[in-house]
Amino acid sequence: MNGAESLVRTLVAGGVDVCFANPGTSEMHFVAALDRVEGMRCVLGLFEGVVTGAADGYFRMKGTPASTLLHLGPGLANGLANLHNAKKARSGIVNIVGQHATYHIGYNAPLTSDIEGLARPMSDWVRTSPNAKAVAADGAAAIAAAKSAPPQIATLILPADTAWNEADGIAKVPPPAQQPGFSSDAVAKAAKILHSGGTQNLLLVTGNALSERGLALAQQIAGKTGCKVLGQTYHPRMARGRGRFSIDRIPYVIEQALPLLKDFKNIVLVEANDPIAFFAYPNKPSVLRPEGCEVHRMTAWGDNSIAALEALSDALGAKPADVKPQKLAEIVKPTGALNYATIAQAIGYAMPENAIVVDESITTGRGFFPLTAAARPHDWLQNMGGSIGFSTPVATGAAVACPDRKVLCMVGDGSAMYTIQSLWTQAREGLDVVTIVFANRIYQILRGEFDGVGAGEPGKRAQDMLKLDRPTIDFVALARGMGVPGRAVTTADELNKALAEAVAEPGPRLIEVQM
Fold first, then answer.
1. C-alpha separations of 64 from 13, 79, 148, 153 in Å
2. From CA 109, how far away is CA 87, in angstroms rounded?
3. What percent of the chain stands above pLDDT 70?
4. Which residue, 341, 186, 203, 347, is CA-closest to 266?
5. What is the pTM of this model?
6. What is the pLDDT of residue 435?
7. Where are the alpha helices (DSSP H) in 231-273?
8. What's the 3-state SS for 313-381?
9. Which of 446, 432, 439 is nearest to 416 (CA)?
10. Bridge pairing between strands 433-439 and 407-412
11. pLDDT digit string, tens, across residues 5-44
């Protein structure tokens, strides 16, 4: 077998059996190997940002890495924004990036570039295979890195001649160096802090602590000690819905975050970061916790936060009987005009059991959490890296990972245009994704940021940089052109009907919410 086939066989044997791909000339031997190797599902994306974002969504829902196939440095560069988001979400991904043949690189052909230099900022592990006989072992090492604790983004660069020359066979993925654990001392310190102080203590959580089990443990700890439980502003994945502990998040807007945090004396971090502002603003703080508030890390990314929360619960004597009942907003079917509240109510009402919600609603969706907390049980995925164009690719990967679950993708119109090609992949693969585009015809987030940084009142030129008009974008027509049925809605009643139909029918659908 050649190097490309040895790599594909190593990937499949190592449990990496999905490849999101946008290949070119240098990757043709890898593409040919897909015909000779059983067990690898290859999903074509028409833009590399779709490919890398789909791999992120796949990992978040499956818990195991997918691979990507990208064409040389420019292909990798096109996918870097969503690799940035994936790295912030601690998703494990194996990137396979083609390269010119080793003997051709020195001629400085048009597509020659420093691929390792491009890869390093968004990768935790980078390697270029020197020859065909090293490819399988390099692939196995990349898989091990992607599956490590915490998971990593691994980028393997494959020169064309290492793909077509003869290889020795497949390689076995090395076992993990150690199983995730936690610090008993950190748990003991957290227990001592939470034992007294009540509502002056904050348990700030993200990551695995936001699984159904992690939230249940946090709820009984809060019931026992009186501490507050919050999530950081954005999360890779959160279990939500009826029967699960509903928590608030630290608001994005500084003026809303500061009063929420002002009375806390201690913050215990469970995988979360010290609360900071998303951006710097004139005359506003970067650190959101009050002066004198002490921060104590109990677990970090890669630790076993569930085991740590169980140990903390035991140390505090917290039990399920300590759980305090929550009063949540009633799920209602809205009527009348479209606004932030009626949109949230319609989505909460229509959401099916075990749905996956991918949220890039930005300004429209900031108030969605309270009004959807009592919806049917679901998982909620958010953008950890802030680079827009995240949601439609992540929804695509989530649907590949969980074909038995309906995916609801909520996205602003500006963000949707970054990776609209995701719709084509969803149609081709028959993925069960409902894309809800909030069409307010403006980068509303930037209009708010313009005020937030104190830039004054925008004039005509500045407004032209913020508005999405002249011409307006017809998302229903765009969807139809890529094989996805769509419809536009202008009232809550129309949205209810469109959601009900989209949830009931298999395959991708698009709803343009004209606001």
1. 13, 20, 10, 12
2. 31
3. 100
4. 203
5. 0.96
6. 98
7. 254-261
8. HHHHCCCHHHCCCCCCCCCCCCCCECCHHHHHHHHHHHCCCCEEEEEECCCCCCCHHHHHCCCCCEEEE
9. 439
10. parallel
11. 999 999 999 999 999 999 999 999 999 999 999 999 999 9
